[in-house]
């Protein structure tokens, strides 16, 4: 999500968080208020422009998608769509809309709103391809819409749970798109009071929310700060209730009772730009993968919050693959053999965000590659510059992280393809064909076999090296209830309470 993810779905944080207002759970005034700290600058509410995991949780709280994800990210559940079903040949998907679903202005959600929303999703440059198999839609009545598919696509329900597939009013409620997204109206549990990209986002309870008894909180404040040194103190002092995507250095200093249960899932990577003549050589990319000391990265770079990588794809989804023959482990002799006869440049640059990855990670990579004769220059840049360089392909090597945004196994591969092999600028036609075959299949075993082929292909081609299987760290006050963190670090705001 996914993905930049996703940056999936989906990315390494470009900043760390601090709650800036003293609105902690100890105050009577805030007894029914949740104060969240965020580690990333908010991309705004514009659907399809939401590229970071933090964006997804905020956006979903306001513009809820048709389908929800439940059971710790393992299944799809009814939401605004009370049910959905394919026809016999899987060429139509009928969506039944919950008759209780209303926008925060009190107007009912209708099939015409969903039809308009679909057109918005499909037009998105980042995620629109996920909905390309929906050729058209047919409104049957106010609460029934049929998606007509150009080909069978079993993954559509999962993509309908994405934050970028938020349901919005037809014709933006009579506003321009720009004006609408400045003050969006959705059918989620909260409505917007105020927001800024690098400040507080204040959300108030939507009195028309379709889930009776929810949201549990009347108000949510989500605050951003670039200062990571005071995070633990703010959390311990009760000035924030939740901390999203806490960096592993700070998390190491916290009592483990603060750390929420999240399975290892996010995959921090070293992306290898194949527009660079040196990195265009597959043997070079494989040599780099063999040069890296994954055990040291796990211990000293990620401080034990995660697992050694076993796949090119995120782990801990139902049916997640493991690379046939095993994923890369350090083998200096093999790396040197692969580089034999290769013209190695004087140096190659590794770009990484100033606040988003432990300096130890890039230093370990630099040291490991030097052992095989590759001199790496480290280039630390601000988050915006780093993100832009990925999108434009103006880097040699870069750090990145990805994850799924739904329980569907094709989620992460779809993002890899949509980003030219996770920004490595490689041809994606082979993977695109495999993804198409996956979507056309309804057989679980056949789908898992296709994803295994995808994983093996990525591990052999090495457009990126998976450095670790991370646990995205979410920390919370002991009194917070209703927190269910999905493997990709998202959670729903409507269930949170003290």
Automatic annotation (TrEMBL):
Where would I find the Solute-binding protein family domain in this sequence?
A: 75-410
UniProt cross-references to InterPro entries, sorted A to Z: Peptide/Ni-bd (IPR030678), SBP_5 (IPR039424), SBP_5_dom (IPR000914)
Q: Which PROSITE patterns does UniProt cross-reference here?
A: PROKAR_LIPOPROTEIN
Q: Which UniProt keywords apply?
A: Signal
One GO BP annotation is: peptide transport
Which stretch is the leader sequence? 1-21
GO MF entries: peptide transmembrane transporter activity
Q: Which Pfam families match?
A: SBP_bac_5
Task: Give the matching SUPFAM superfamilies.
Answer: Periplasmic binding protein-like II
Q: Is Nucleotidyltransferase included in the keywords of this UniProt record? A: no
Per the record, its GO cellular-component terms are: ATP-binding cassette (ABC) transporter complex; periplasmic space
- What name does the UniProt record give this protein? ABC-type transporter, periplasmic subunit
Q: Which organism is it from?
A: Bifidobacterium callimiconis
